[in-house]
């Protein structure tokens, strides 16, 4: 059914919201397939449905109509608890606003997905420390978010996204709150992760950020407008 | 910089069983402690109601326990076999000027009745006493109203304690009602100060009495505040010198002989009294007999009511405290909407979020309960110290108080926690 290596396959994806008496059509039938080890940027103007698509791919939201297969499993139509489990096992999130727990140390923030995976404290700490080392923050583990720079916070968030060894790293405007130097640094981290084999899906509206991805999918009015694969340099 | 981790992938899909609950519990408790620490004042105010409620219960438990242990001690000292005969037994005071008919038809207790009971082979001691409230006075120093007994020379058989200097009454003094008095040591100090009271003439209830002995009451016996025994005079002297109430002030104290059961002694005394009063078989008794157990029961009923009232009052405080906790938890959930979104994105289920907030609110109220227990015990200690009771609190009351405070956290945390659990992750992550 799915080609070997296909990680995400959506077809006829439709999402409608009721806003009072009006119905908002956020997605009007999206079909696409993302393969293992791909580095995909999803672009589009605001209101194009990219956030909605992102939420559905991230199993935070479900579609009104359509099919979503993740890693060979049909996700559309599963219950809340199962969605939570899929998020925990398959998805690593990186947000524009970092979304770290302010009172927790970097290490504890990174441990969070492992807590919900039921991993014991000892293993949790070791894995979280390794994830922080991977993003170059080995010396900042006991710092709280307010003691870290924006770039460091986003690195903590990336480490948190990676710690469960997810199938997809899902980044939503990961450089939106960073200056250009730091943005370049963070994009470097993503490039490095992709080179190590991590599948990365990134939502952005910045053309130069999207340009670093191998493949750019552009949404417009809830439909796929273009889907271009850049030849490897 | 970017090295692959050497560890095995930690996310094991089937590993979300019992371990999750403990891991999650630790996370919830840790979160709670962090939240309480970051909002010290708010947390303190939130749990104030819980503290007050629990402290009230604990202080009451401590006092009631103090009184109870004192009563048991008294019974232990005086002998649990002593029983008393009354004209009419009532746990509430009667108005002597408006006695009910059922009381008025009963004859007043007589000294010869007590003497007749004492002649029975089952009885070791039987004597009529009168208890009144009078002031002691010596050279212008006056005491408060205190308990003065009119009794006989063997009053220690019932009261315990000992004569520490001087002597007890002679049988002649008791029979004739001579104006002599035995003073309780502490009461004597209050009116005599440094003066040795022996052989001095003082006033008891305005009448002249000569001090012939000093009496020391047993340690740790129960005397309701304001009812400490201060003096004992011969029964006939008291009867002539003081005004007393024939129903509530007169009593016959009876102690069975060793080896005779209380029931057997009571039966014998009952028969003797009925015979003396000419009661026919089938006539009701015209007197009441109460044992130490019954006194204890009455006390238990009284403290039970007292306790119940305090529990009702403190449950109001606990309710108010619980509502406070609920309100603060609501605020906490709202202000941490984003955090909840993040946790959900990281894979927390509804149940896990629910439990985390329940644990947080239970931790809050548990802290309140712990402080309340400490405050209540402290207050109880101080009060018991002032009232000179034995201190000490049954361990179950602390356990119950802890349980109740945790329970309140769970009950009143349910609504906010449920609200947190039901948050839509997309909405929660977007929340500003």
Give a summary of the structure in a few sentences.
With 233 residues, chain A is α/β, with parallel strands linked by helices. Chain A contains 7 helices and 10 strands.
Structural key phrases:
heterodimer; A: 233 residues; alpha/beta; Rossmann fold; 6-stranded mixed β-sheet; 4-stranded antiparallel β-sheet; 10 strands; B: 432 residues; alpha+beta; 2 domains; 6-stranded mixed β-barrel; 15 helices; 55% helix; disordered N terminus
- Report Rg of chain A: 18 Å
Number of helices of chain B: 15
Regions with little confidence, pLDDT below 50 for 5+ residues of chain B: 1-19
Overall mean pLDDT score of chain A?
A: 90
Chain oligomer state: heterodimer
Largest interface: A-B, 48 and 41 residues
Task: Walk across the major sheet of chain B and give the strand order.
Answer: 2-3-8-5-7-6
Fold and architecture overview:
The complex is a heterodimer of chains A (233) and B (432). With 233 residues, chain A is α/β, with parallel strands linked by helices. Chain A has helices at residues 50-57, 80-90, 106-116, 121-134, 150-162, 180-195, 207-210, and strands at 6-19, 22-35, 39-43, 65-70, 73-74, 91-94, 168-172, 199-203, 215-220, 223-229. Chain B has 432 residues and is an alpha+beta fold. Helices cover 55% and strands 17% of the residues of chain B. Chain B has a 6-stranded mixed barrel with strand order 2-3-8-5-7-6. In chain B, strand 2 (123-138) and strand 3 (141-151) form a beta hairpin. Chains A and B meet through helix 2, helix 3, helix 4 and helix 6 of A and helix 1, helix 12, helix 13 and helix 15 of B.
